[in-house]
Amino acid sequence: LLEGTLALVLSVFFGVACFRRTKSGLHHELNRALDAGEFVAYLQPMMNREGTQVTGCEVLVRWMHPELGLIRPDRFIPLAEDSGLIVPMTRELMRQVREAMGPRAAALPPHFHFSFNIAASHCHDLSLIEDCRSFLAAFSANPVNLVLELTERELIVPDETTIQLFDELDRMGVSVAIDDFGTGHSSLVYLQQFKVDFLKIDQSFVARIGSDALSRHIVDNVVDLASRLDLSLVAEGVETPEQAEYLMARGVDFQQGYLYGCPVPLADFWLEAKLP
Ligand code: C2E
Ligand code: CA
Ligand code: CA
Ligand code: CA
């Protein structure tokens, strides 16, 4: 416990102090970590409506720091975005997943989903097209559904490159999900512009399903919106059977959360559902 606390204190100090003093020092540290292979892909299962089958997974990055241990993404993603390192870091995650799972493609259920989180700044970089192409090519034996998650917390201001990027991704069959849905202010035009396929109901609403009527109301409204716009729905942060039942009854298409499985290293990811 003491070690954990020390690591936490160090990482907080490290993050804040370094960022304030020398931004470039931290960028250098992130670059070093990327070269050293310290950014590792973890997978969290995504379940079907009934919560009985693993239909896909979300890729979540972890920084395995040699001194500080495991660092959660909230602590370094903003810095990686700021330094432009988010692009090669995401590429590295895609590489890890396709190299581990590509050879097992035949064992995957048909149209298995692989979801990657994409930062707003990444949406102005056409190299994402090539990265997605390489990913899909690794699964040509049994095509998968590649999904890019864009968070609603950070609205993307589309320029010409962004529009070209999303048109091309759409032609390639890459899907787009709006993450943390309900917390931001994306308009219908926005959903159209990015040719959105999935909405992910933010976990804060799912967490309060059993306890407050407003959250239930928000969930019901998102379900309604999704069905009217013909979008698939994912609920994240599902932790209790009561939440799962509520979402199932509302016809939410996919579920994700600790009830079904935490994010785990690639080697520990199981394709079979471990029922709660
Ligand atoms: P997110 O995309 O909304 O991911 C969901 C977060 O909730 C993850 O935290 C996940 O571990 C956690 N979670 C999953 N199930 C449950 C549950 O049942 N209950 C609760 N309380 N939490 C649950 P994590 O892995 O720490 O990631 C935090 C955020 O960092 C992500 O939020 C995402 O915005 C960002 N992130 C993670 N990996 C990447 C990445 O590779 N690239 C980018 N650009 N952002 C990433
Ligand atoms: Ca996400
Ligand atoms: Ca989310
Ligand atoms: Ca689409």
From TrEMBL:
Transmembrane parts of this sequence: 1-19
Part of the intact protein present: 230 to 505 of 505
GO cellular component terms, A-Z: plasma membrane
Known catalytic reactions: 3',3'-c-di-GMP + H2O = 5'-phosphoguanylyl(3'->5')guanosine + H(+)
Enzyme class, UniProt record, top EC level: hydrolase
Superkingdom field: Bacteria
EC number: 3.1.4.52
Membrane topology designation: Multi-pass membrane protein
Domain EAL: 23-276
Protein name: cyclic-guanylate-specific phosphodiesterase
Compartments it resides in: Cell membrane
Organism: Aeromonas simiae
One annotated GO molecular function: cyclic-guanylate-specific phosphodiesterase activity
Keywords annotated in UniProt: c-di-GMP, Cell membrane, Hydrolase, Membrane, Transmembrane, Transmembrane helix
